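Problem statement: downstream parser choked on a complex file, so we are re-checking the raw output for the geranylgeranyl diphosphate run. The parser issue turned out to be on our end (a line-ending mismatch), but while we're here, posting the original submission so the record is complete.
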Amino acid sequence: MDIKELISNGVKLTEAQLDKLLPGEDVAPTTLHKAMRYSVFAGGKRIRPLLCLEAARAVCGDTTPALNAACALEVLHTYTLIHDDLPSMDNDDLRRGRPTNHKVFGEGVAILAGDALLTEAFAMLAQVPANELYNVRDYVAELAYQTGSRTLVGGQVLDLEGEGRSLSVDELRAIHNGKTTALIMAAVRLGGMAAAASPEQLAALSTYGRCLGLAFQIIDDILDITSTPEVLGKSIGKDAAVAKATYPALVGMDAARAEAKALTEEGRAALDVFPAERRAALLAISDYLLNRDY
Ligand code: GRG
């Protein structure tokens, strides 16, 4: 499995479809559409679309049914980044190697660009074909659950409330599971659902997503300490600067790495329900995410 080729194919497929689905920069109101496209086409890793596409391949051998779901995940993720960078949230200047949305377009337009991307995500999801097990109502319910007040937005609130407080590992895990794991769960589950996953296959993908999501955020915490803004394309050291609890801060660097590794192993093992050639891509992605340096 050539992971670089796998990623580059997934990125190309997703970006071409995003370009078709998102309103053009010349469509009124042009400032809003420019702001939306500015952040979407700023060169993110496209991990969530990739996971969605490859979850579909694991189930049915084809990524096509999941393409619009993959786009929905990426625009929803981009909304969270724009809002997370706002002065009232993390107050960041750099994202995906560029000045943050509000730095370029102003706070009002940045908030609205995030809102519009969140809405567009559901419009994209409404274009995912139904199959014998799932329809648009199921896709919408899944994305709404994983990104609502009990999950993604809820995790962000716990994060805000935890700043400057000492947290237990369980409290930190609850924040990470809301902010990061929920959308990664949505990615693999929606990919599976679009490909008509059986209940057993969907349960396996859920375990993989739950484990990978937390491992992803633990590595994110580690990179915030060990990497550079040039490599990550975003500012670093913010967590320590605002006394935010992180995995390495709470349990130490070695234990944090060990937990990310153990979670990745658990996620990989769950994929045993898929034939070897169908699970190869998801296995390769899990290794790549564990060992990434950006
Ligand atoms: C509703 C005002 C309002 C705000 C909501 C929900 C939310 C803001 C923020 C979500 C929290 C968040 C940004 C979590 C971080 C998740 C994470 C690890 C982001 C980085 O993902 P990568 O590394 O980024 O995949 P790229 O740029 O590669 O796509």
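For whoever reads this later: The pocket of geranylgeranyl diphosphate is lined by residues 44-45, 47, 77, 80-81, 83-84, 96, 152-153, 156, 179-180, 217, 220 (CB under 6 Å).
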